[in-house]
Amino acid sequence: MRVGFLTTITLLFLLPAISVVGQSRTENVVLITLDGMRWQEIFQGADKDILHDKRFVEDAADADSQYWDNDPIKRREKLLPFIWGTIAKEGQIYGNRSLGNKVNVRNKFRFSYPGYNELLTGFPDKRIKSNAKRNNPNQTVLEFLNKKMEYKDKVAAFASWDVFHYILNQQRSGVHVNAGNDTLGAQKLSARERFLNQLHKTSPSPWSSTRYDKITHQYASEYFANSKPKFLLIAYGETDEYAHGGHYLSYLKSANKTDAYIQEVWNWIQSDEQYRDKTTLVITTDHGRGNGRKSWRSHGVLQKGSNHTWFMIMGPDTQALGEMKEKQHYYNNQLAKTIVGFLNLEYPVHGSYGGVIATAMEH
Ligand SMILES: [Zn+2]
Predict the structure, then answer these.
(1) What spacing in Å lies between the alpha carbon of 117 and ligand 1's midpoint?
(2) pLDDT for 72-107, tens place per residue?
(3) What architecture (CATH level 2) is domain 26-360?
(4) pLDDT per residue over 232-260, tens digit each?
(5) Pairing with 88, which of 36, 184, 202, 258 sits 20 to 30 Å away (CA)?
(6) Domain locations in the chain?
(7) Ligand 1 centroid to 20 CA: how many Å?
(8) How far is the CA of 248 from the centre of ligand 1 (A)?
């Protein structure tokens, strides 16, 4: 009896530690963001009203043939075949508000820099209230990891938007950041790297601060293969740019293309010994957008719904629960602590840090 009692007590002390830290199989994390991608298209596919509005789509018949289906399930699979074909089967997808499963940003501003700060540091900061190129006073998950012996120089970010140099405070953090107009560095370049630099220089995007996502994706691909990071952020930016421009079909095409990029990333992971079954993939966005034809293009305090987001997780420590259907409320500021938890580390405590997303970490 005495032994049984002591064993029970010991187990009670051990259990919480086992379920949160210490048992995780994740050794690497790849975090992917789609700037300003709405939850509506993630869960319901193309929006009929916007798709059939001449201001946003010139050729409705062409758009229909690519992305329309009366069945919302088939419609979302048409738009995001990898997400709904694989992540929905092997991972977890949060944020379908029509089922009562909600994800929000906590920050009041509902645009990019405040959103990425919240996501990457774990808390909203009211000092971060513009997209200006100012160095982040806060430490992101990337900087936190880059300070650890095990992760030093194994942390990298590839971003289409050039403000990432500042969001990640490249100067102070020493994190490898390639964003905006950056090409690949001065070290000896392979023929493919030289080709990518050439492609980048000869494919200027129409936007002042954002390059085409294909450049970001290909640079990230090269880095992943050659430098083997343990933490990689790939921040795609086209969805937000096309939405602001009112180009709905381009917004959908970009989301569809990014879905294929994510599939490629998963293939890199599963075909490499360092990563296979040891890597957690986290995908999310920095903010939502307004609703319907009137305000889908914009986001911010004035556009209702701009704080509505989503995220998905797939990896060796995440059960295959698919689309999350429980009436629950989650926040983007929980992801920083969750990511660090996957890596068996404790994130420094701060009053307004979001807690770990426990459902994503239960075996
Ligand atoms: Zn925007």
Answers:
(1) 15
(2) 999 999 999 999 999 999 999 999 999 999 999 999
(3) 3-Layer(aba) Sandwich (3.40)
(4) 999 999 999 999 999 999 999 999 999 99
(5) 36
(6) 26-360
(7) 35
(8) 14
